[in-house]
Amino acid sequence: MPYAKYIFKPGIDREGTDYSNEGGWYDANLVRFRKGKPEKIGGWQKQTSNSYLGIGRALHGWVDLAGTRYLGIGTTYKYYVELGTSFHDITPIRATTSAGDVTFSASNGDATLTVADTAHGAVQNDFVTFSGAATLGGLITADVLNQEYQIATIVNANSYTVEAKDTDGDTVTANSSDSGNGGGSVVGTYQINVGLDVYVEGTGWGISTWGAGGFGSVGTLDASNQLRLWSHDNFGEDLIMNVRGEGIYYWDESGGTSARAVSLTAL
Could you tell me if 87 and 23 lie in one domain? Predict the structure, then answer.
């Protein structure tokens, strides 16, 4: 059988089917057409070696009047603004306690700290930053306490646990001298409740942590036990964002990436 020369039409045509598009291209990946011929694109390149917390759920890019490029990233845990190759945490604050409302307790040989705060309103995996704390007397120093923590477990409506760490993120285990409570000047600053990285179809047993609640029990669906979704858009140079089931927040670009978004009702 003699060889035959086939000339394929350039471009991807998906208005029909792969059978009806005879002599043309119906599907491709990482391909462009140059001078009528297909040419492979070199592939993907990593944007940054830095990372963020949570599963990314929404992206929004915009440019300010000076030409600075920003990328807003809403995740299941936080909201970030990327500038250059760095991610900046601008997650809104939900609540800030009065001095002395938060106290700590530790057990010898254990890194788990129990935090007491009446009606804290937190859920598992929430983020809280402590300030004004004094040493518990041993290895749990003021530097260990006065930083951001992710809540490990919820004990009840008035207490929860965190895992003690140093400023490098390494685990710190309490000793027998850690008998204090952090002093009377501790302040807890809570970020808005985190959301789930999965979709929950209904209420009742199985919502949130597996096995939470009794079989046949009824639970309430809210922003903290549903799939975390963000809506966001720029308002000129600034950014407006909304968490599914919660309020609307505003980030003022003129405050820089060290400033957090605030509730729109507070402006």
Answer: no
